[in-house]
Specification:
With 398 residues, the chain is of the alpha/beta class. The protein has 13 helices and 21 strands.
Length: 398
């Protein structure tokens, strides 16, 4: 599945709030993902950001006035409404929210919105007292009841100096929710357990054995599954990645911690996808204090085996789909096939690690899928997000 907003017609509505500057970045992100974005601004929004900025970034005329002469004889607000696949209002002022909830059409944006039939996502942003006022809350509830999507504002320090709810979420998060609302929900009703990241096996309180896994692939799988309506639990080792929206996040450190978390959640999962790079071994002993190098020229660390989580999952699974990942440096097919059979998997994603475009920490991956029936499917190099969707497509076919 390609980026869901690629080639989609999206209208970005900008009203006169202090956070209008963030909608510039939102526009840029949507254009980067291949969306065809048109901007409609309220007249008051022009106090905050100039239409020229939106025009330059979208490559399209910006509509600010219902009665301005367009380049053609069309009625722009009706044409744009008919052509839109989605509408995002960010920021949505208390004023525009009030107008939309009551069907007022007295400017370009509010008139356009009345003609819209595609999904509409509102991002309220204002001072906390305004946001919490009965009128604004009542209007938001009414818009939700009318079938529109509302993204709750973030809490924090606001431009007006108060602290509380009302901040426009970061553009990345708004884009994330837009993609969620537009994605087909083919995993609805399915519970997925996904693991990600490395584990850390302590030698002493300040040193550990680990691997370069960034967690990006496992997070991509969890994120894609959530977008498609899955009920997702992500068990992750230490990473630098931000928590995912609408995903139950469980954080562990060691292979043993990962094993405990996985086994206590596996029963409730329909699909288990093990992407984590779990250490096969851990130091037999962990010292309580930092090992000092005084008078030690050679240090021997004895390692003992960690639980083989994937193998145990394969042994315990009942009517569940179990998918593993194999990160190899050679003989990909041989090692992947062996793991597939020995661990009773339904599918294994084999990838050669240690190349700039594939494996640990890369943004892209080049993988081959090995199925239980002996078939293999080599895939081209692709973004980890795209690979996650291809993998979920295949899992749904199993
Ligand atoms: C400096 C300044 C910042 C403002 N920020 C906000 C805001 O963040 N949210 C909001 O709802 N209104 C805000 N307002 C008030 C709106 O601009 C005002 O209600 C206006 O009528 C909104 O018009 P519009 O919805 O047509 O754009 C702000 C006003 C000023 C002067």
């Amino acid at each position: 599945m390609k980026a869901i907003i690629e080639n989609k017609n999206i209208v970005l509505g900008v009203s006169g709030g202090i956070a209008a500057y963030k909608s510039v970045e939102l526009l840029r992100l949507m254009v980067k993902r291949g969306a065809n974005v048109r901007v409609i601004m309220t007249k008051n929004a022009r106090w905050f950001v100039g239409p020229l900025t939106f025009k330059a970034l979208s490559g399209q005329p910006v509509c600010t006035d219902l009665f301005e002469n367009g380049e053609d004889a069309s009625i722009r607000h009706i044409d744009w409404a008919g052509e839109a696949d989605a509408v995002v209002i960010a920021p949505a002022t208390a004023n525009i929210i009030g107008k939309l909830a009551n069907g007022v059409a007295d400017d370009a944006l509010s008139t356009f919105i009345l003609a819209v039939t595609c999904p509409m996502i509102l991002c309220p942003s204002m001072n906390s007292q305004m946001y919490e006022s009965k009128a604004v809350q009542r209007n938001i509830e009414r818009l939700k009841a009318d079938g529109h999507f509302v993204i709750d504002p973030d809490s924090g320090q606001l431009a007006c100096g108060t602290t509380g709810p009302g901040r426009l979420p970061e553009p990345e998060d708004i884009l994330d929710r837009l993609i969620y609302y537009l994605s087909p929900k083919d995993l609805k009703g399915k519970r997925l357990l996904v693991t990600a990241g490395p584990t850390r096996e302590s030698i002493d309180p300040v040193r550990f054995i680990s691997n370069p896994s960034s967690g990006k692939m496992g997070f991509a799988v969890a994120k894609a599954a959530e977008k498609r309506g899955g009920d997702v639990t992500l068990i992750t080792g230490p990473t630098n990645l931000a928590d995912l929206n609408n995903v139950k996040m469980l954080k562990v450190n060691t292979a043993q911690g990962m094993a405990e978390a996985v086994f206590s959640h596996m029963e409730h999962a329909d699909i288990i996808i093990k992407v984590a790079a779990v250490s096969d071994y851990r130091p037999k002993e962990q010292t309580e204090q930092k090992i000092k190098k005084d008078n030690i020229s050679e240090l021997v660390v004895f390692l003992e085996e960690n639980p083989d989580i994937l193998k145990e999952l394969g042994r315990r699974k009942k009517n569940q789909i179990l998918v593993g990942f194999a990160a190899e440096t050679e003989n990909l097919e041989k090692h992947s096939q062996k793991k597939l059979t020995e661990k009773n998997l339904d599918l294994i994603v084999g990838n050669i690690v240690g190349r700039p475009s594939s494996g640990f920490d890369a943004e892209t991956n080049k993988a081959t899928l090995f199925y239980k029936d002996g078939t293999t499917e080599p895939l081209p190099t692709m973004e980890k997000d795209d690979l996650a969707h291809v993998l979920l497509d295949r899992i749904l076919q199993l």
